[in-house]
From TrEMBL:
<feature type="binding site">
    <location>
        <position position="287"/>
    </location>
    <ligand>
        <name>pyridoxal 5'-phosphate</name>
    </ligand>
</feature>
<dbReference type="InterPro" id="IPR015421">
    <property type="entry name" value="PyrdxlP-dep_Trfase_major"/>
</dbReference>
<keyword id="KW-0028">Amino-acid biosynthesis</keyword>
<dbReference type="InterPro" id="IPR015424">
    <property type="entry name" value="PyrdxlP-dep_Trfase"/>
</dbReference>
<comment type="subunit">
    <text>Homodimer.</text>
</comment>
<feature type="binding site">
    <location>
        <position position="143"/>
    </location>
    <ligand>
        <name>N(2)-acetyl-L-ornithine</name>
    </ligand>
</feature>
<dbReference type="Pfam" id="PF00202">
    <property type="entry name" value="Aminotran_3"/>
</dbReference>
<feature type="modified residue" description="N6-(pyridoxal phosphate)lysine">
    <location>
        <position position="258"/>
    </location>
</feature>
<keyword id="KW-0963">Cytoplasm</keyword>
<dbReference type="InterPro" id="IPR005814">
    <property type="entry name" value="Aminotrans_3"/>
</dbReference>
<dbReference type="InterPro" id="IPR015422">
    <property type="entry name" value="PyrdxlP-dep_Trfase_small"/>
</dbReference>
<dbReference type="InterPro" id="IPR049704">
    <property type="entry name" value="Aminotrans_3_PPA_site"/>
</dbReference>
<dbReference type="InterPro" id="IPR004636">
    <property type="entry name" value="AcOrn/SuccOrn_fam"/>
</dbReference>
<keyword id="KW-0032">Aminotransferase</keyword>
<feature type="binding site">
    <location>
        <position position="140"/>
    </location>
    <ligand>
        <name>pyridoxal 5'-phosphate</name>
    </ligand>
</feature>
<dbReference type="InterPro" id="IPR050103">
    <property type="entry name" value="Class-III_PLP-dep_AT"/>
</dbReference>
<comment type="pathway">
    <text>Amino-acid biosynthesis; L-arginine biosynthesis; N(2)-acetyl-L-ornithine from L-glutamate: step 4/4.</text>
</comment>
Amino acid sequence: MNDLHLAPVQPDQPSHLMPVFGRQPISFVRGRGSYLYSDAGVEYLDALTGIAVCGLGHAHPVLAEAIAEQAAALIHTSNLYEVPWQTAAAQKLAAVSGMHEIFFSNSGAEANEGAIKIARKYGNQQGLRCPKIIVADGSFHGRTLATLSATGNKKVQEGFAPLVEGFIRVPFGDVQAIEEAALLHPDIVAILLEPIQGEGGINTAANGFGYLEDVRRICDQHQWLMMLDEIQTGNGRTGQYFAYQHTQIIPDVLTTAKGLGNGFPVGAVMTQARGTGILTAGNHGSTYSGTALGSRIVYTVLDLIEKENAVENAAVIGNYLAESFREQLAEQNVIVRGFGMMIGIELPKECAELVAIARDQHQLLINVTAGNVVRLLPALNMSREQADDLLQRLVPAIKNFLN
Ligand SMILES: *Cc1c(COP(=O)(O)O)cnc(C)c1O
């Protein structure tokens, strides 16, 4: 292992980091595909990929080379000039999404901020003084003030009053609640939803993606913007490039991030149809929007997803994993929810301890969300052998835990 990878931490000094994260007592010095290597040299199977970020796995050689080449040529010039890699990345993203206008952000929350601004301006253009956006219970949209206000989780909001106004909350999956809100509030302009709630426990509506079709119909009836947060579900994660592509509908506004940069911080807010033409010169921006380096990374990630058939692989291997968990845990009273490489295993009891058990006893990295849901977000290009490796590590861990 190369010493260059080891950070010169002063062990006798405080970290000086703001204590906002609950960190596990382990660090990694390198990765390869679906595996990570700790500072102690131990190999771990990574079924979380940096929280749905490294969809192509760690240290992808083609991406690493593109990053090195671009970093050596040009990282950033600003949007005062043309940025050809930004255009190339937008053209590729438009082709896979069906969207028309794209703004690159640096994170998921910032992409959602863009979506919220689009909805606000759409309302302001209609002369509404306080345009409202419908959002769902159990949702997660980010940690900035507007996005935490949109988030349906009290813990995320606690201590940050006053929240940003203009959000109306409905139960996720409840079409009637949306129709009732429409009757009560004449100033609704948009709905913002995750097609599958990730942080919320890998949930879809009771009628699955039929909910999205219902929401699309309601948005059209009222001329609202249908805005989908595909920050976690996008970029091949669910076995389609975007989760709405499991249906016939297309949103007016779409946000993504996470898998878009395979670890490089980048996001995007995209529009088509009713969503286009709203943000114009001077309305939005960011110093780092679509840098040459970030855009080359997005272009290369999209190119690799295509060339490696990663979306199709995510569908096939994800389905194999979900089916295998259902079979092998049939006696355990668990509920498996699988959408490509976004898999939730709901246990009959709280299971936060499973994270440490899987890590220390099975060298497997997983996450637990919503208290009792084991969340798996493996690399899209995981092989069948690696999927079997994952099953062999996790199934006994869950069985032992529940016995
Ligand atoms: C992660 C996530 C966000 C926030 O993205 P950041 O890059 O952390 O700001 C927003 N929405 C969803 C659905 C997410 O999964």
